[in-house]
Design brief:
The protein is mainly alpha-helical and 368 residues long. 74% of the residues lie in helices and 0% in strands. Helix 5 runs parallel beside helix 17. The longest helix is centred in the first third of the chain and has 23 residues. The radius of gyration is 21 Å and the shape is globular.
Amino acid sequence: MSNKLIIFILILGIIYRLISTSGGNFLFNMDNARDMVDVREMVVLKKFRLTGPTSAIEGLFNGPAWYYLLAFPFILSGGAPYASILMEIVLWTIGGFFLLKLVGEWSSWLMLPIGIIWIASDYIVLANRYAFNPNPVILLSPLFIYLLVGYLKNRKAVFIILAWFLAGLFFNFEMNFGIFTPIIIFASVILTKNTGLFKQKGFWIGFAFFVLTLLPQVIFDLKHQFIMSKALLRHLSENSGASLNIVKRFQIISESFYNTFQATLMNHQLFTRIVLLFFIPVIYWFLKMKKRETVVCVSLLLIFIPFLGYLILPVTVNPWHLGGEMAVSLILIAYLLKKLIDGGLLNKTIAIFLTVSIIWFGLSNIGN
């Protein structure tokens, strides 16, 4: 039953995305044009690249993984821009499968509201409307959580090797998020009391794969007189901590997270506030528990570590930098619904209200 429901939800989402992007109804802007030109040079002129798109810091470039990923639809379609949209729909399907597998371990009924958000969320739908280098982070973060949680539970080396490799790809796609992935992995092992895993070869083989994904940028920096290192140091010196206002920074980052979370919940402000309000006691009870669920612990770390990092790092936090956090927030919404439905009559009523609201808002988005 669970697998059939997953397949049904994903097919519904694929059809919705194909219809909504058909007839050229997708975005293609200057960034997309730049990427296509760069990919064309790689494929047609055989000019292999060591860097990817420019970052928000002048002189600092993301890794080349995004261009190599774009090369697949480019080759298969002969350079048709819509092929990159189809690729992102495939990534959405992969991420959705593992997202629903994770929440389905609690209960099959949770797949329905979470699946509806994954299908209809304004923020997630936008990630399928144009090919943008941070989008794979949004779409594949559930897979990252699945691999990391699977390793912490089953201790199979293949899980952590793939998790580290995916973390390296995230660093390539969007450094503003990828920089936190090693911290998330180490913190997950430590806080779930699995420090013995540090003694396993598989963990460090995975770490080696992470380092390998960074080598193209390192080689580029060495070949160009440390242009990226100098750009990063210049940015840090010009935005030193001497002028850091932690209160103002907290307000700015909180607002960025809130606005992006609201877009994830179909842009319903009141509903977003209600969900956040109920999160407070649920997270409090979770932190007081002696035996904590691994998937919730890892999901919280993936959200709070970047949040704390953004408080002190001199970077602008845009909505596309928060894709991983927003995708993983759906796991926490499922946990919230689970805890409410396991409670008394009032809690069950609230869980039903939230579930019906999610389904109604999602179907309304699809209908519009």
